[in-house]
Amino acid sequence: MGGEPGRVAVVGNGPVGQTTALLLARWGVPVLVLEAAPHRDPVGSKAICQQRDVLDVWETIGVGARLAAEGVTWTTARTFFRDAELFSYTIADPGRAFFPPFVNISQARTEELLDERIAAEPRIEVRWGHRVTALEQDAGGVRLVCATDRGEAEFAARYAVLCAGARAESLRARLGVTFDGQSFDDRFLICDIRADLPGWASERRFYFDPVWNPGRQVLIHPCPDSRFRIDWQVPADYDLAAEEESGALDRRIRDIIGDSAYEIIWKSVYRFQSRVASRLRVGRVLLAGDAAHLMSPFGARGLNSGVADAENAAWKLAFACHGWAGEDLLESYHHERHAAARENLEITTATMDFLVPQDERQWERRRSVLERAVTDPSARGEVDSGRLAEPFWYVDSPLTTPDPGRPFAGRPPRGAAPAAGPGVLVPDVPFATGRFRELARDGLLLLATPGTDPAAARDALAGFAGPARLLELGADGELCTALGARDGELWIIRPDAHVAAVLTRPARDQVAAALARVLAIPTPKEETRDHTVGRAG
Ligand SMILES: Cc1cc2nc3c(=O)[nH]c(=O)nc-3n(C[C@H](O)[C@H](O)[C@H](O)COP(=O)(O)OP(=O)(O)OC[C@H]3O[C@@H](n4cnc5c(N)ncnc54)[C@H](O)[C@@H]3O)c2cc1C
């Protein structure tokens, strides 16, 4: 079959497809985006809540700072039970981050800004009105068959990323991928309203059992332009049209905002699911975003994790396309992002079990936890109003070299970040004339602290054909402090700014082994120990 050399096809021009395309183009890879819809239809809004590290990824493709400037920044999450405030927390920053912890902005605006960047990117071709109906692959590439207004069209690419969202079942099925999980019975009414409510403008508020939604909960998020998202849990037989007609919807809103004037911008009723695809890599095809996993939005983990999929997929596909690594690197995409999806599902399903108890035992536990939490601070940790999105830690990844001196302490408390170490996303700090993470995202980055022999690292890197940089940290205190780096260490940072290895006074072979590992190249055997690293593909 023979795909066009180097070209990657992205199926679906939603925010995950857009981000994947732009990141691939940033790595110099030509991209063909195939989208079923005839044009962008910015009606309604799904995601509003974007996490700091995701804004950071978007900044590499030119939209992070714009989203942050246009969006509403919030740092505090408050949780109430009836009229008592149970707790509030602010989100920690392990370094000196460029972005605030969370920015609320509509998914429609995010997509619009990403479209502008795509229009300015000559390496990306977008074909609207192209519904992919079949994906076939062989050793040479991928063939994509599309249904269009003018009949069937076919395209070839070297690799493909399936970002076709929740309704990708027929394409998943063609790839032999199942989408196991569950749907939740209760439904959620979401209204975006415009109103003047100054006291509500910079906090996320979560109410359990408020008098205006007894036995259920309400979540309120501030958004730009005096908009607020109100999200009510409603019964399975809830009827929005009947509520509108009877005036009950107006009363529902007035119960919360009082007499203030308001306008409904958008409303919808959702039922949520928890599902993950059985494989996120099938040969030359990777699955990303909602095509790969679905979860309830409590914790804002859907699009935020989709962007992390996009970043993980893009650097690996780019390294394979350029011949800087072999195709084995692609298998680590499944390993890492499937683990991330499972973690997200575990967290969001636990939240849903607390919000929508499945049986009397869960109801009883919820009642007891909430009642105790009013007076007993030790019960507050059990109140689950959603654990907010955070980057996944590739601690058990085949690309990560473990460091026995830095064991991973497990999932940190709500709002906290784990200490930097193998698998963890590096904290950001100002560095030289820019930011440390910007530098990290340019390729492989090796950091030698004082007391490390940089020659060993330089030597091991010499055979790698891709972008790589070795920095001797000298006396740069702030970066070493943020990382917790000690003298005599060599840190290897991946192109997605996660730590691949921390080696103590390593010899050349140890550096070579860690580099081979992060590129998924089989570790050199004894007799081939003097081979250089990285000339795969
Ligand atoms: C109410 C609600 C609130 C949410 N809030 C948040 C939040 O605050 N934060 C957060 O991170 N996430 C949130 N999410 C989740 C977020 O909206 C999704 O994770 C996100 O839309 C996924 O993007 P995607 O690009 O993977 O899929 P989609 O946005 O579904 O895009 C898929 C695209 O693929 C196209 N397509 C489909 N089939 C084909 C085909 N065969 N060929 C070509 N094109 C095709 C579609 O037309 C579409 O354009 C929320 C979701 C909901 C429902």
CATH class of the largest domain: Alpha Beta
What overall geometry do the principal axes of the alpha carbons give?
Answer: globular
User: From the coordinates shown, what is the CATH architecture of the largest domain?
Assistant: 3-Layer(bba) Sandwich
Q: CATH homologous superfamily of the largest domain - what is it?
A: FAD/NAD(P)-binding domain
Descriptive account of the structure:
Helix 12 links the parallel strand 25 (444-448) and strand 26 (468-472). Helix 1 (15-26) runs parallel beside helix 4 and helix 12 (454-461) packs across helix 14 (508-518). The model is unreliable at 1-5 and 526-537 (pLDDT under 50). The chain folds into three domains: 8-70 and 106-181 and 274-349, FAD/NAD(P)-binding domain; 187-270, Alpha-Beta Plaits (2-Layer Sandwich), CATH 3.30.70; 393-537, Glutaredoxin (3-Layer(aba) Sandwich), CATH 3.40.30. It is α+β, with helices and mostly antiparallel strands and 537 residues long. The strands form seven sheets. A seven-stranded mixed β-sheet has the order 6-5-15-16-17-14-18. Strands 8-2-1-12-21-20 form a six-stranded mixed β-sheet. A four-stranded mixed β-sheet has the order 26-25-27-28, with helices on one face. The chain has 14 helices and 28 strands. Bound molecules: flavin-adenine dinucleotide. Residues 11-17, 34-37, 46-49, 107, 131-132, 163-168, 171, 190, 270, 289-291, 297, 300, 302-304, 306 line the site of flavin-adenine dinucleotide. Flavin-adenine dinucleotide binds next to helix 1, strand 9 and helix 8.
